[in-house]
Description:
The protein is of the alpha+beta class. The protein is 31% helix and 22% strand.
Amino acid sequence: MQVFLALLVLVLIPFTTLTKAERISKKGCKDTCGGVSIPFPFGIGINCSKNEWYNVDCNSSTPYLSALNNMEILRLQVEYPYYVTVNFSMTFDCQNQVKNSTLVLSKDSPYLISGDYNSLFVEGCGIYAEVRGNATIVSGCSTICRNNTVTDRNNCIGIGCCQATISASELKSFRLNVRGLESPDGDGSCGSGSAFFMDSEYFNRAGFPRPSLDGVNIYVPITLGLFLGYNDDNSSPECKRCISKGGYCYENLEADSGTSCYIYKKSKFGVILGVSISAGLLFLLVISYALYKIIKKTKAKRRKQRFFKRNGGLLLKQQQETDVGLVDKTILFTSNELEKATDHFNENRILGRGGQGTVYKGMLPDGRIVAVKKSKVVDESQLVEFINEVVILSQINHRNVVKLLGCCLETEVPLLVSEFISNGTLYDLIQNETGELSISFYMSLQIATEVAGALSYLHSATSIPIYHRDIKTTNILLDEKYRAKVSDFGTSRFVAIDQTHLTTLVKGTFGYLDPEYFQSSQFTEKSDVYSFGVVLLELLTREKPISLTRFGENRSLATHFILAMEEGRVMSIFDARVVKEGARTELLAIANLAMRCLNFNGKNRPTMKEVAIELESIRLSHVPSEDQTNFGRAKQCEEVPLTYGESTSTTMSITFGDNYSQ
């Protein structure tokens, strides 16, 4: 579009110079000489000019006015005010008492000596000069000096230099007289002074003229007013018609009476052509821009429709038609809404990047802060499961589960919108290497209880049981009050109430993976229990699920814990603060619960509901010390720059926990 506008400007510029007042020469005649424009009524040669008064000789690329003794023409203007500036030869030799210069114009010539453009300029010490026009003094001034020295030649205020305007606006002749002040009768010496009658504009540019090679003749520019016989009152019908056609009306100097009309030759065809081309181009540009916007909008709409269909939008519509209650609960965001919310997915809005996509921080029109996940890839073979997950998860309303607000299916990959959780992941809180924040035993117990309650809800309280399949500390988020929020349902699956397991490809995170599931590829609700048992160990020991500092089978935290329990030294692997703040009976009760969760035989593990009840009982019986309570309150008011942990899921993910921070 910018290129089109630039072309339009280039086209319009040449035609904007074709104005009504343009002056050119007669057809077939040259219109310049030596860089000076020669418009009609002037002309180079008698056949090109109005009459002999306007005849111009062009010799050696210098224009001369033959009617005025071949004075050189410096400039011409036949637009009102009309004038011609010529070089006039003045003779001045103060020492030899040749003290005058005279110019007399013929009475019938169209030229007048202009008092509006010319002035008197005098240089020297003790000099008086005057200009007489038509036997009347029309201008005069005198100079004085200090120490008989001219100090400033360019500041004519009477000291060494003076200037005076002409009282008469038009003269047919002038005479310049100069004398020394000490000789009033005119016979005294005037020293080395000089006086000139010349065009004021030229003087302001160049100052006093200098003598020619003979030392006597000096050429000065004088501007002559040009009388074209223009009829100012425009009273006659002939003049009115002439002016309406773009010409000018003047008295016919070649006849005794009457007026003549001259219309300057202008390229009306060029003006019409220029206006037509410009208007046509402007019209084409407007139409082209409108078509461009329409085509762009149409393509964008078709692309969104194609993505919507490919990403399972039709399946979602079908489910909404089947269950009307889903319409209000499953929110479909438009791509425009999420682009505005994230400032067009600005790099500055990135909260984190994970294995499955990038999470952006956004603000909805109602002011809600949200996390928008832009996935990297789409597994089209699992679109049905994906839509089912979106529908079910958007209906989950549990305080310890990250709320899925909706999705956008109009983009190349689905955009998932969830509530924004401000304090990062449990993994970062546990493994805080800066030492700025140390989690208390009471906080650990509370977080464990909240996670267990959320998993119990997913397993048994929803309309269709949900197996998370990727429970780990990086998928447990913490809000501003350090309440736990289970997130990352990328590998989650729904099972029928009468089903006991899912047979799937083994997916999960090493260190949290149920050994039974790894061997049989059958995922049960007890597989989530095993993963939770590892999370419980992290809260007790503050160690990673897989550690390179331990050797052999002890690299696995679960194995390391089981061996310590069997050897009766479990208290030695617990974190020092946990041991200090927790009662031994409480710690052993939690250790036994973790041991049951990590049982190799899934049937012998407790359900998540049983785990949640037991942890809640321990939490209620625990009486936190004043230090623990104060710590918890203080830390709730602090902003801790934590980041979400990276998901290791490999399928299409409904995930909001991929490495992002507030």
